[in-house]
Amino acid sequence: MAYPDLMTRPMREEVTRLGIQELKTPAEVDAVIGAGEGTMLVFVNSVCGCAAGGARPALSLALQSQVKPAKSVSVFAGVDTEATQRARSFFSDYQPSSPSMAILKDGEVVHFVHRHQIEGKHPQQIAAELVAAFEKHCG
Known about the structure:
The chain is an alpha/beta fold. The protein is 41% helix and 19% strand. The termini are far apart.
C-alpha cells in the first residue's frame, strides 16, 4: 500500500528543492540510472523518522560540497514501489533498506549507505561521510 500524496509531498519537495531529480517509474529509472555514465547519487527516500531526522538533512548539507556527483536522483520507497524496485536492481548486491544512498560511477556502485548507517547519527555525521565519499569517487 502506497502512502497518500498529502503525507509524502513535503518529503518529496524537501528532496527536489535540493536539485535532486525524482524518478517515479521504472522507465525513468532505466533512462537515467541505466545510462550508467559519470557519477551519480541515488537516494532511496522514505517516510521513516531516520529519513526525516538524518538522511534528508544530511543530503542537504552534503550537496553543498564543492565535490559532488554529476547527477543526483531519488526514488521513494513505499510510494513509487516499481521505480524503487528497479533502482535497487542497480545495487542488488546490497540489502534493500530505506532510506539508503548509493554512489555510482559509470554504472558501478562505489559507495553505499544503509539505513543502519543513518539511524542514530546526526545529519552532520552522515553528511561528512557522504562528502568524504564524494571526494574519493567524484573528484
